[in-house]
Amino acid sequence: MHRFSRKVHVGSAPGVLRAPETRRVDSTTISVMRFGPDHLEEHTAEGAADLAPLVPRVGEAGGLTWIDVVGLHDVELLAEIGRLFDIHALSLEDIVNVGQRPKVEDYEGHLFAVLRNFHPPATPPPPGTAPTLRPEQVSLFVRPGLVLSFQEIPGDSFEPVRERIRRGNTRIRSRGADYLFYALVDAVVDSFYPILESLGETVEALEEELIEDASQESQDTIHGLRRNLLQLRRAVWPMREVAKELLREDLPMISDESRLYLRDCYDHASEVLEMVESYREVGAGLQEVYLSTVSQRLNEVMKVLTIIATIFIPLTFIAGIYGMNFEAMPELGWGWAYPATLGVMAAIGIGLVIYFRRRGWM
Protein backbone atom coordinates (compact mmCIF):
# COMPACT_ATOMS: atom_id res chain seq x y z
CA MET A 1 0.00 0.00 0.00
CA HIS A 2 1.27 3.47 -0.93
CA ARG A 3 1.58 5.37 2.34
CA PHE A 4 1.98 9.00 3.30
CA SER A 5 5.29 8.34 5.00
CA ARG A 6 8.43 8.95 2.99
CA LYS A 7 12.03 7.88 3.32
CA VAL A 8 14.22 10.63 4.72
CA HIS A 9 17.87 10.72 3.64
CA VAL A 10 19.62 12.01 6.74
CA GLY A 11 22.36 14.52 6.07
CA SER A 12 21.60 15.03 2.38
CA ALA A 13 22.08 18.51 0.97
CA PRO A 14 18.94 20.63 0.41
CA GLY A 15 17.61 20.47 -3.14
CA VAL A 16 19.05 17.04 -3.98
CA LEU A 17 16.59 15.15 -6.21
CA ARG A 18 15.99 11.47 -5.61
CA ALA A 19 13.42 9.44 -7.49
CA PRO A 20 10.48 8.13 -5.43
CA GLU A 21 10.89 4.67 -3.92
CA THR A 22 8.01 3.31 -6.00
CA ARG A 23 7.75 3.92 -9.73
CA ARG A 24 4.02 4.31 -10.32
CA VAL A 25 4.01 4.89 -14.11
CA ASP A 26 6.01 3.39 -16.95
CA SER A 27 7.02 6.70 -18.48
CA THR A 28 6.68 10.41 -17.79
CA THR A 29 4.12 12.24 -19.92
CA ILE A 30 3.94 16.01 -20.43
CA SER A 31 0.79 17.70 -21.69
CA VAL A 32 0.78 21.37 -22.64
CA MET A 33 -2.17 23.73 -22.94
CA ARG A 34 -1.61 27.33 -24.03
CA PHE A 35 -4.72 29.42 -24.28
CA GLY A 36 -6.29 32.84 -24.16
CA PRO A 37 -9.75 34.35 -24.66
CA ASP A 38 -9.73 33.58 -28.39
CA HIS A 39 -7.20 30.78 -28.92
CA LEU A 40 -6.20 27.35 -27.62
CA GLU A 41 -3.12 25.25 -28.31
CA GLU A 42 -2.89 21.72 -26.92
CA HIS A 43 -0.17 19.15 -27.48
CA THR A 44 2.04 16.57 -25.80
CA ALA A 45 5.73 17.25 -25.22
CA GLU A 46 8.30 14.49 -25.57
CA GLY A 47 10.85 16.05 -23.25
CA ALA A 48 12.35 19.24 -21.88
CA ALA A 49 13.57 20.23 -25.35
CA ASP A 50 9.97 20.56 -26.54
CA LEU A 51 9.24 22.90 -23.62
CA ALA A 52 12.15 25.26 -24.27
CA PRO A 53 10.31 27.26 -26.99
CA LEU A 54 7.56 28.02 -24.47
CA VAL A 55 9.89 29.85 -22.09
CA PRO A 56 10.03 33.16 -24.00
CA ARG A 57 6.23 33.04 -24.49
CA VAL A 58 5.48 32.82 -20.76
CA GLY A 59 3.97 36.06 -19.63
CA GLU A 60 2.91 37.24 -23.09
CA ALA A 61 -0.23 39.33 -23.06
CA GLY A 62 -3.38 37.29 -23.63
CA GLY A 63 -1.65 33.95 -23.20
CA LEU A 64 -1.53 31.46 -20.34
CA THR A 65 0.52 28.25 -20.32
CA TRP A 66 -0.40 25.14 -18.34
CA ILE A 67 2.10 22.27 -18.31
CA ASP A 68 1.00 19.04 -16.64
CA VAL A 69 3.69 16.43 -15.83
CA VAL A 70 2.61 12.90 -14.89
CA GLY A 71 5.33 10.64 -13.48
CA LEU A 72 8.04 11.71 -11.04
CA HIS A 73 10.69 9.01 -11.48
CA ASP A 74 12.69 10.85 -14.19
CA VAL A 75 14.55 13.28 -11.93
CA GLU A 76 16.80 14.48 -14.76
CA LEU A 77 13.77 15.59 -16.76
CA LEU A 78 12.29 17.29 -13.70
CA ALA A 79 15.57 19.05 -12.99
CA GLU A 80 15.68 20.32 -16.58
CA ILE A 81 12.09 21.58 -16.29
CA GLY A 82 13.07 23.31 -13.07
CA ARG A 83 15.96 25.07 -14.81
CA LEU A 84 13.77 26.11 -17.75
CA PHE A 85 11.06 27.70 -15.64
CA ASP A 86 13.18 28.83 -12.68
CA ILE A 87 11.64 26.53 -10.05
CA HIS A 88 13.39 26.77 -6.70
CA ALA A 89 15.54 23.75 -5.81
CA LEU A 90 13.66 23.19 -2.56
CA SER A 91 10.36 23.10 -4.45
CA LEU A 92 11.77 20.52 -6.86
CA GLU A 93 12.93 18.44 -3.92
CA ASP A 94 9.41 18.53 -2.45
CA ILE A 95 7.95 17.50 -5.82
CA VAL A 96 9.89 14.24 -6.02
CA ASN A 97 9.85 13.49 -2.27
CA VAL A 98 6.27 12.26 -2.27
CA GLY A 99 4.50 12.00 1.05
CA GLN A 100 4.79 15.71 1.80
CA ARG A 101 2.23 17.32 4.05
CA PRO A 102 -0.09 19.63 2.05
CA LYS A 103 1.33 23.13 2.22
CA VAL A 104 1.80 26.40 0.33
CA GLU A 105 5.06 28.33 0.06
CA ASP A 106 5.58 31.82 -1.29
CA TYR A 107 8.87 32.30 -3.15
CA GLU A 108 10.04 35.45 -4.84
CA GLY A 109 8.34 35.46 -8.20
CA HIS A 110 6.32 32.25 -7.83
CA LEU A 111 4.01 30.29 -5.58
CA PHE A 112 4.36 26.60 -4.77
CA ALA A 113 1.73 24.30 -3.28
CA VAL A 114 1.57 20.61 -2.38
CA LEU A 115 -1.82 18.88 -2.27
CA ARG A 116 -3.15 15.38 -1.66
CA ASN A 117 -5.37 13.54 -4.08
CA PHE A 118 -6.97 10.10 -3.85
CA HIS A 119 -7.90 7.69 -6.60
CA PRO A 120 -10.60 5.03 -6.22
CA PRO A 121 -9.59 1.40 -6.87
CA ALA A 122 -9.28 0.27 -10.47
CA THR A 123 -12.19 -2.15 -9.99
CA PRO A 124 -15.21 -1.24 -7.83
CA PRO A 125 -15.25 -3.17 -4.53
CA PRO A 126 -18.17 -5.49 -3.68
CA PRO A 127 -21.18 -3.76 -2.10
CA GLY A 128 -20.64 -3.07 1.57
CA THR A 129 -16.84 -3.34 1.27
CA ALA A 130 -14.56 -0.39 2.00
CA PRO A 131 -12.57 0.57 -1.13
CA THR A 132 -8.78 0.70 -1.02
CA LEU A 133 -7.81 4.28 -1.84
CA ARG A 134 -4.66 5.15 -3.74
CA PRO A 135 -3.13 8.40 -2.41
CA GLU A 136 -1.20 10.70 -4.68
CA GLN A 137 0.82 13.86 -4.19
CA VAL A 138 -0.04 16.76 -6.50
CA SER A 139 2.36 19.71 -6.71
CA LEU A 140 1.48 23.07 -8.27
CA PHE A 141 3.86 25.81 -9.36
CA VAL A 142 2.44 29.17 -10.44
CA ARG A 143 4.01 32.35 -11.72
CA PRO A 144 2.66 35.09 -14.01
CA GLY A 145 1.47 33.46 -17.24
CA LEU A 146 2.45 29.92 -16.20
CA VAL A 147 1.09 27.03 -14.15
CA LEU A 148 2.99 23.76 -13.73
CA SER A 149 1.35 20.70 -12.19
CA PHE A 150 3.17 17.51 -11.19
CA GLN A 151 1.35 14.24 -10.51
CA GLU A 152 2.40 10.70 -9.64
CA ILE A 153 -0.14 8.72 -11.65
CA PRO A 154 -2.58 9.41 -14.53
CA GLY A 155 -6.34 9.52 -14.21
CA ASP A 156 -6.38 12.82 -12.35
CA SER A 157 -9.11 15.16 -11.18
CA PHE A 158 -7.98 17.92 -13.56
CA GLU A 159 -9.97 16.67 -16.56
CA PRO A 160 -13.03 18.86 -15.73
CA VAL A 161 -10.72 21.89 -15.79
CA ARG A 162 -9.38 20.85 -19.20
CA GLU A 163 -12.93 20.48 -20.49
CA ARG A 164 -13.80 23.98 -19.29
CA ILE A 165 -10.78 25.33 -21.17
CA ARG A 166 -11.67 23.39 -24.35
CA ARG A 167 -15.29 24.60 -24.25
CA GLY A 168 -14.04 28.16 -24.33
CA ASN A 169 -15.16 29.07 -20.84
CA THR A 170 -14.61 32.81 -20.95
CA ARG A 171 -13.79 33.13 -17.26
CA ILE A 172 -10.94 30.61 -17.10
CA ARG A 173 -9.71 31.56 -20.58
CA SER A 174 -9.56 35.26 -19.81
CA ARG A 175 -8.20 35.23 -16.26
CA GLY A 176 -4.62 34.90 -15.14
CA ALA A 177 -2.50 32.08 -13.77
CA ASP A 178 -3.84 32.61 -10.25
CA TYR A 179 -7.38 31.77 -11.39
CA LEU A 180 -6.21 28.58 -13.13
CA PHE A 181 -4.30 27.76 -9.94
CA TYR A 182 -7.53 28.22 -7.96
CA ALA A 183 -9.43 25.99 -10.42
CA LEU A 184 -6.88 23.18 -9.98
CA VAL A 185 -6.92 23.43 -6.19
CA ASP A 186 -10.72 23.45 -6.21
CA ALA A 187 -10.76 20.38 -8.51
CA VAL A 188 -8.58 18.46 -6.06
CA VAL A 189 -10.78 19.43 -3.12
CA ASP A 190 -14.00 18.57 -4.99
CA SER A 191 -12.59 15.15 -5.95
CA PHE A 192 -13.09 14.11 -2.31
CA TYR A 193 -16.89 14.29 -2.63
CA PRO A 194 -17.33 11.12 -4.78
CA ILE A 195 -15.00 9.24 -2.44
CA LEU A 196 -16.99 10.31 0.60
CA GLU A 197 -20.22 9.39 -1.18
CA SER A 198 -18.84 5.89 -1.79
CA LEU A 199 -17.77 5.62 1.84
CA GLY A 200 -21.23 6.80 2.89
CA GLU A 201 -22.81 3.94 0.92
CA THR A 202 -20.43 1.55 2.65
CA VAL A 203 -21.51 2.94 6.03
CA GLU A 204 -25.20 2.43 5.22
CA ALA A 205 -24.60 -1.13 4.04
CA LEU A 206 -22.57 -1.85 7.18
CA GLU A 207 -25.32 -0.57 9.45
CA GLU A 208 -27.85 -2.95 7.88
CA GLU A 209 -25.36 -5.83 7.92
CA LEU A 210 -24.48 -5.37 11.57
CA ILE A 211 -28.14 -5.38 12.55
CA GLU A 212 -28.92 -8.54 10.58
CA ASP A 213 -25.78 -10.63 10.93
CA ALA A 214 -22.40 -9.29 12.03
CA SER A 215 -19.46 -11.36 10.78
CA GLN A 216 -15.70 -11.23 10.62
CA GLU A 217 -16.05 -9.69 7.14
CA SER A 218 -18.00 -6.85 8.79
CA GLN A 219 -15.12 -6.27 11.17
CA ASP A 220 -12.64 -6.20 8.28
CA THR A 221 -14.82 -3.70 6.42
CA ILE A 222 -15.04 -1.46 9.48
CA HIS A 223 -11.25 -1.49 9.84
CA GLY A 224 -10.87 -0.64 6.13
CA LEU A 225 -13.41 2.17 6.45
CA ARG A 226 -11.69 3.71 9.46
CA ARG A 227 -8.28 3.39 7.77
CA ASN A 228 -9.57 5.25 4.71
CA LEU A 229 -11.13 7.97 6.82
CA LEU A 230 -7.90 8.43 8.74
CA GLN A 231 -6.02 8.84 5.45
CA LEU A 232 -8.57 11.36 4.24
CA ARG A 233 -8.37 13.34 7.47
CA ARG A 234 -4.58 13.52 7.28
CA ALA A 235 -4.93 14.96 3.79
CA VAL A 236 -7.95 17.25 4.15
CA TRP A 237 -7.00 18.91 7.44
CA PRO A 238 -3.78 20.53 6.13
CA MET A 239 -5.41 21.17 2.73
CA ARG A 240 -7.99 23.32 4.47
CA GLU A 241 -5.10 25.23 6.02
CA VAL A 242 -3.61 25.61 2.54
CA ALA A 243 -6.87 27.15 1.29
CA LYS A 244 -6.88 29.44 4.32
CA GLU A 245 -3.26 30.43 3.71
CA LEU A 246 -4.08 31.38 0.12
CA LEU A 247 -6.60 33.92 1.42
CA ARG A 248 -3.80 36.01 2.91
CA GLU A 249 -3.66 39.45 1.34
CA ASP A 250 0.15 39.55 1.37
CA LEU A 251 0.48 36.90 -1.37
CA PRO A 252 1.36 38.91 -4.49
CA MET A 253 0.58 36.00 -6.84
CA ILE A 254 -3.09 35.89 -5.83
CA SER A 255 -5.30 38.74 -7.03
CA ASP A 256 -8.19 40.04 -4.96
CA GLU A 257 -10.66 38.68 -7.51
CA SER A 258 -9.22 35.16 -7.36
CA ARG A 259 -9.11 35.39 -3.58
CA LEU A 260 -12.91 35.64 -3.60
CA TYR A 261 -13.12 32.28 -5.36
CA LEU A 262 -10.58 30.78 -2.97
CA ARG A 263 -13.00 31.54 -0.16
CA ASP A 264 -15.42 29.11 -1.79
CA CYS A 265 -12.59 26.58 -2.05
CA TYR A 266 -11.92 27.01 1.67
CA ASP A 267 -15.62 26.42 2.38
CA HIS A 268 -15.51 23.20 0.34
CA ALA A 269 -12.42 21.99 2.19
CA SER A 270 -14.10 22.74 5.53
CA GLU A 271 -17.23 20.88 4.42
CA VAL A 272 -15.19 17.86 3.32
CA LEU A 273 -13.36 17.85 6.65
CA GLU A 274 -16.67 17.97 8.53
CA MET A 275 -17.95 15.03 6.48
CA VAL A 276 -14.77 13.07 7.21
CA GLU A 277 -15.06 13.78 10.94
CA SER A 278 -18.75 12.80 10.88
CA TYR A 279 -18.00 9.51 9.14
CA ARG A 280 -15.17 8.85 11.58
CA GLU A 281 -17.63 9.17 14.46
CA VAL A 282 -20.04 6.86 12.64
CA GLY A 283 -17.19 4.42 12.05
CA ALA A 284 -16.37 4.40 15.76
CA GLY A 285 -20.06 3.82 16.47
CA LEU A 286 -20.14 0.92 14.01
CA GLN A 287 -17.19 -0.62 15.81
CA GLU A 288 -19.10 -0.41 19.08
CA VAL A 289 -22.22 -1.86 17.43
CA TYR A 290 -20.17 -4.76 16.08
CA LEU A 291 -18.64 -5.47 19.49
CA SER A 292 -22.07 -5.22 21.14
CA THR A 293 -23.60 -7.57 18.57
CA VAL A 294 -20.82 -10.11 19.02
CA SER A 295 -21.08 -9.80 22.81
CA GLN A 296 -24.87 -10.22 22.67
CA ARG A 297 -24.50 -13.27 20.46
CA LEU A 298 -21.97 -14.74 22.87
CA ASN A 299 -24.31 -14.03 25.78
CA GLU A 300 -27.13 -15.85 23.99
CA VAL A 301 -24.91 -18.86 23.42
CA MET A 302 -23.73 -18.82 27.03
CA LYS A 303 -27.32 -18.56 28.24
CA VAL A 304 -28.35 -21.63 26.26
CA LEU A 305 -25.35 -23.57 27.51
CA THR A 306 -26.04 -22.46 31.09
CA ILE A 307 -29.68 -23.56 30.85
CA ILE A 308 -28.67 -26.94 29.46
CA ALA A 309 -26.04 -27.36 32.18
CA THR A 310 -28.56 -26.33 34.88
CA ILE A 311 -31.08 -28.91 33.66
CA PHE A 312 -28.51 -31.68 33.68
CA ILE A 313 -26.98 -30.86 37.06
CA PRO A 314 -29.75 -32.56 39.15
CA LEU A 315 -29.96 -35.38 36.64
CA THR A 316 -26.23 -35.95 36.92
CA PHE A 317 -26.58 -35.85 40.69
CA ILE A 318 -29.20 -38.60 40.65
CA ALA A 319 -27.18 -40.68 38.19
CA GLY A 320 -24.12 -40.21 40.39
CA ILE A 321 -25.97 -41.39 43.49
CA TYR A 322 -27.14 -44.60 41.87
CA GLY A 323 -23.83 -45.14 40.19
CA MET A 324 -22.10 -45.68 43.53
CA ASN A 325 -21.13 -49.26 44.37
CA PHE A 326 -23.01 -49.72 47.64
CA GLU A 327 -24.85 -52.95 48.34
CA ALA A 328 -27.20 -51.60 51.02
CA MET A 329 -29.29 -49.46 48.68
CA PRO A 330 -32.95 -50.61 49.07
CA GLU A 331 -33.95 -49.29 45.61
CA LEU A 332 -31.60 -51.73 43.91
CA GLY A 333 -33.86 -54.65 44.81
CA TRP A 334 -37.07 -52.99 43.71
CA GLY A 335 -38.38 -54.06 40.32
CA TRP A 336 -39.66 -50.59 39.39
CA ALA A 337 -36.57 -48.74 40.59
CA TYR A 338 -35.15 -48.15 37.12
CA PRO A 339 -38.28 -46.70 35.45
CA ALA A 340 -39.09 -44.74 38.61
CA THR A 341 -35.65 -43.15 38.59
CA LEU A 342 -35.97 -42.25 34.91
CA GLY A 343 -39.42 -40.78 35.61
CA VAL A 344 -38.09 -38.63 38.42
CA MET A 345 -35.25 -37.40 36.22
CA ALA A 346 -37.68 -36.60 33.37
CA ALA A 347 -39.99 -34.74 35.74
CA ILE A 348 -37.11 -32.68 37.10
CA GLY A 349 -35.93 -31.79 33.56
CA ILE A 350 -39.43 -30.87 32.34
CA GLY A 351 -40.11 -28.90 35.50
CA LEU A 352 -36.92 -26.87 35.06
CA VAL A 353 -37.76 -26.12 31.41
CA ILE A 354 -41.25 -24.91 32.42
CA TYR A 355 -39.75 -22.79 35.20
CA PHE A 356 -37.16 -21.20 32.85
CA ARG A 357 -39.83 -20.40 30.28
CA ARG A 358 -42.06 -18.72 32.84
CA ARG A 359 -39.13 -16.60 34.01
CA GLY A 360 -38.40 -15.62 30.39
CA TRP A 361 -34.94 -17.16 30.36
CA MET A 362 -35.67 -19.33 27.32
Question: Quick summary of this structure?
Answer:
The chain has 362 residues and is an alpha+beta fold.
Keywords:
single chain; 362 residues; alpha+beta; Beta Polymerase, domain 2; Methane Monooxygenase Hydroxylase, Chain G, domain 1; 2 domains; 7-stranded mixed β-sheet; 15% strand; rod-shaped; disordered N terminus
Spell out the CATH superfamily of the largest domain: CorA soluble domain-like
Strand percent estimate: 5-15%
- Give a count of the beta strands, DSSP E runs of length 2 or more: 7
Structural class: alpha+beta
Give the helix level as a range of percent: 40-55%
CATH arch. level architecture of the largest domain: 2-Layer Sandwich
Give the C-level CATH assignment of the largest domain: Alpha Beta
Order of helices and strands: EEHEHHEEEEHHHHHHH
Count of DSSP-assigned helices? 10
Task: Kindly report the oligomeric state of this protein.
Answer: single chain
The largest sheet is: 7 strands, mixed
Number of domains: 2
Uncertain runs are: 1-5
CATH structural fold name of the largest domain: Beta Polymerase, domain 2
Kindly report how far apart the N and C termini lie. 49 Å
Q: Layout of helices and strands, plus pairs?
A:
Layout: E1 29-36, E2 39-45, H1 48-51, E3 64-70, H2 75-84, H3 89-96, E4 103-107, E5 110-119, E6 134-143, E7 146-151, H4 159-166, H5 170-174, H6 177-190, H7 192-213, H8 216-245, H9 256-321, H10 337-358
Parallel strand pairs: 3-7
Antiparallel strand pairs: 1-2, 1-3, 4-5, 5-6, 6-7
Q: Can you describe what's shown?
A:
The protein is α+β, with helices and mostly antiparallel strands. It folds into 2 domains: 265 residues, Beta Polymerase, domain 2 (2-Layer Sandwich); 61 residues, Magnesium transport protein CorA, transmembrane region (Methane Monooxygenase Hydroxylase, Chain G, domain 1, Up-down Bundle). Helices cover 52% and strands 15% of the residues. The protein contains 10 helices and 7 strands. It has a 7-stranded mixed beta sheet with strand order 2-1-3-7-6-5-4, sandwiched between helices. Helix 6 packs parallel to helix 9 and helix 7 runs antiparallel to helix 8. The chain is rod-shaped and about 120 Å long.
